[in-house]
């Protein structure tokens, strides 16, 4: 890592600007000495979990939603992924509260059962609401996903949700900028998920704190939009509130024709502007991290934070391997919680459940990748395949992927956050172990006492076939 | 928001790094639609272990949390802040914080104080040696004090002023409603709307 903070300040006047700086500057409503910038927010995504207290706040102060036309809501965290009503009364009350609030404040809502419903970070891009150069927020840390289109997108807490509802702005200091340069090409069978897990293992769960990360380089350029979203999604797992990728032809091709994408002359105008959204040649980042994609292999986590990962071909590390005492004691704790013994080959770790889904890997491309591996095979473990949205579900069914999954013995579910977090009926029992395409392997994240290994959709599917952590190449 | 000027209280040492917000308050507790009652969910899984530090009666009534590095990583849930406050904490001291957690804390008047990892360990050791030792966190002077020792911490002037005055951000922003309207009028017409 190279830190260039000082040089940056001295050279600022003559230097070009980074993508993050360009997008930020474009959104400054007000700037005053000694105060954070007041930033305009182009799109506010809402879900049932982090919004009820914000709406209460509005009511108490007799405030309205300033821009219902820049706000969209969906139900995702609490929803069961089997048909039928929500049986848990507390979950149901939360979803009903969102419906009441959306009606009262005049907000567009995609409720359970609606064709537009889905995980909040899947539906924004799918509708074409997520576009280059925008500022996007949501009361959810994986809002960083939307940065894949070249905007600044970050998660906020409930106080800030209320602030955006009331003012369509947020006061914020501009984070520092970090470039993660990924050179070379990802080897065959190595995915965006493996790449981001390797990045997090390299820089650590705190490595990105205080930064907006721009992912750059050949391997990033070659990713599909789905892959780019997977990478940006997990920026927060490296501590970075936002991750972004400069828009290019791949971005424009993805957006063209989507319901909320510009049309006709407006499209041309938009594309002309979007083409300016790239870091200038002579711009300087506060920090640069370099990674060679061609050296990567399928990657899995062994611990209880996303930075505790290793190549699937490796073994469970011994705590003594960590020089830093803090990391060492974290590894000790993690191995105990995970029920793992140092030195065990990761390929020998047996799992009880496989989960393919979430805002990290619940898009059509992910489901196709899993289906390609499960086609003509049978799963050995409980396997949940959960599309990230109702539209993804429809598209997958059009291609017959649901048949592939069912024939293999996997469960094909309705759209939602599902087993990504223990808020809905899809959970691990205490001591159960999963291979999961989601983004967090925290203690209890998938249900109290549950043990999570984060993997790519390909590794998840191969693991379902053998019952042990497995790379597709090993089948 | 409750104003924060200076606070003196006893402290709990939490010798764990990377305490994510899923540990501070597990997801099942997030189903509540009210703003109260979250203290019961604070560190819910860990509190089931009788040996967990918060269960040690000598730390009853402590209001300063001395946490390991990277406290409050992960999920954006502000419930983590509410749970800590409602349990009785006014200050969290750590070497590093998750960005969103730190932001949420300053919106609610829970003071996140960044001190060097060595100093945090020193404070943890002091709280272990004498659980009745009182720590003073002085936002006016930007200083943490214990006995004869004092350490300075950094916090930007604006956030400090907001906390000292107990000001609510929305009210402050609405003073600039004209600026917002002006900005709105200049936005590109092709930017999407949800309608
Ligand atoms: S899928 Fe998981 S990470 Fe994504 S929004 Fe839902 S709960 Fe959060």
From TrEMBL, chain B:
Could you tell me one molecular function GO term of this UniProt entry?
3-isopropylmalate dehydratase activity
- Look up the record and name the pathway of this protein: Amino-acid biosynthesis; L-leucine biosynthesis; L-leucine from 3-methyl-2-oxobutanoate: step 2/4
Keyword list (alphabetical) reads: Amino-acid biosynthesis, Branched-chain amino acid biosynthesis, Leucine biosynthesis, Lyase
Name the Enzyme Commission number(s) assigned to this protein: 4.2.1.33
Which Gene Ontology terms describe the biological processes this protein takes part in? L-leucine biosynthetic process
List all membrane-crossing ranges.
none
What Gene3D superfamilies does the record point to? Aconitase, domain 4
The UniProt record lists the Aconitase A/isopropylmalate dehydratase small subunit swivel domain at 1-116
One of the Pfam families matching this protein, by short name: Aconitase_C
Subunit relationships: Heterodimer of LeuC and LeuD.
Function of the protein: Catalyzes the isomerization between 2-isopropylmalate and 3-isopropylmalate, via the formation of 2-isopropylmaleate.
Family affiliation: Belongs to the LeuD family. LeuD type 1 subfamily.
Q: What is this protein called?
A: 3-isopropylmalate dehydratase small subunit
């Amino acid at each position: 890592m190279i830190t260039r903070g000082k040089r940056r300040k001295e050279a600022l006047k003559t230097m070009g600007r980074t993508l993050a700086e360009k997008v930020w500057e474009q959104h400054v409503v007000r700037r005053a000495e000694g105060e954070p910038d007041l930033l305009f927010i182009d799109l506010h995504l809402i879900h049932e979990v982090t919004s009820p207290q914000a709406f209460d706040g509005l009511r108490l102060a007799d405030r309205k939603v300033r821009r219902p036309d820049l706000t969209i809501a969906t139900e995702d965290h609490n929803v069961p992924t089997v048909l039928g009503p929500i049986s848990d009364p507390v979950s149901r009350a939360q979803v009903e509260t969102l419906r009441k609030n959306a009606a009262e404040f005049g907000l567009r809502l995609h409720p359970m059962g609606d064709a537009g419903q889905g995980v909040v970070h899947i539906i924004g891009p799918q509708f074409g609401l997520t576009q280059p150069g925008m500022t996007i927020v949501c009361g959810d840390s994986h809002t960083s996903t939307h940065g894949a289109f070249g905007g600044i997108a970050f998660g906020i807490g409930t106080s800030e949700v209320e602030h955006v509802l009331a003012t369509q702005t947020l006061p914020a200091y501009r984070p520092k900028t970090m470039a993660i340069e990924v050179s070379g090409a990802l080897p065959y069978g190595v995915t965006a998920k493996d790449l981001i897990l390797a990045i997090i293992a390299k820089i650590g769960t705190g490595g990105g704190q205080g930064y907006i990360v721009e992912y750059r380089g050949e391997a990033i350029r070659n990713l599909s939009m789905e892959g780019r979203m997977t990478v940006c999604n997990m920026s927060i797992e490296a501590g970075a509130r936002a991750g972004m990728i400069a828009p290019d032809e791949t971005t424009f091709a993805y957006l063209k024709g989507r319901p909320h994408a510009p049309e006709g002359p407006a499209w041309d105008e938009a594309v002309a502007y979007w083409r300016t959204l790239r870091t200038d040649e002579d711009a300087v980042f506060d920090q640069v991290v370099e990674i060679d994609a061609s050296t990567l292999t399928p990657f899995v986590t062994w611990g209880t934070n996303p930075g505790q990962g290793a190549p699937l071909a490796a073994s469970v590390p011994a705590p003594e391997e960590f020089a830093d005492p803090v990391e060492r004691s974290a590894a000790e704790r993690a191995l105990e919680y995970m029920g793992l013994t140092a030195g065990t080959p990761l390929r020998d770790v047996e799992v009880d459940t496989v989960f393919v889904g979430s805002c990290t890997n619940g898009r059509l491309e992910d489901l196709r990748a899993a289906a390609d591996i499960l086609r003509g095979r049978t799963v050995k473990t409980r396997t949940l395949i959960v599309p990230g949205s109702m539209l993804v579900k429809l598209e997958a069914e059009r291609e017959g992927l649901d048949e592939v999954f069912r024939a293999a013995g996997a469960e094909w579910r309705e759209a939602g956050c599902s087993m990504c977090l223990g808020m809905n009926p899809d959970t691990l029992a205490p001591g159960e172990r999963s291979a999961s395409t989601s983004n967090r392997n925290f203690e209890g994240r998938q249900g109290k006492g549950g043990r999570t290994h984060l993997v790519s959709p390909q590794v998840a599917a191969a693991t379902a076939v053998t019952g042990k952590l497995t790379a597709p190449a090993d089948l | 928001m409750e104003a924060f000027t200076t606070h003196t209280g006893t402290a709990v040492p939490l010798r764990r790094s990377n305490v994510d917000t899923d540990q501070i308050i597990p997801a099942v507790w997030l189903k509540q639609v009210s703003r109260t009652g979250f203290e019961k969910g604070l560190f819910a899984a860990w509190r089931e272990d009788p040996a967990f530090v918060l269960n040690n009666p000598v730390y009853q009534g402590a209001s300063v949390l001395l946490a390991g590095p990277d406290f409050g990583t992960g999920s954006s849930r502000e419930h983590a802040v509410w749970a800590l406050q409602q349990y009785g904490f006014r200050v969290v001291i750590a070497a590093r914080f998750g960005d969103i957690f730190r932001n949420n804390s300053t919106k609610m008047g829970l003071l996140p104080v960044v001190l060097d990892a060595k100093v945090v360990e020193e404070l943890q050791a002091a709280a272990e040696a004498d659980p009745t030792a009182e720590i003073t966190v002085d936002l006016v002077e930007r200083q943490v004090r214990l006995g004869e020792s004092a350490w300075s911490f950094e916090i930007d002037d604006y956030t400090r002023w907001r906390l000292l005055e107990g000001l609510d951000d929305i009210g402050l922003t609405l003073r600039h409603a004209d600026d917002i309207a002006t900005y709105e009028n200049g936005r590109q017409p092709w930017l999407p709307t949800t309608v």
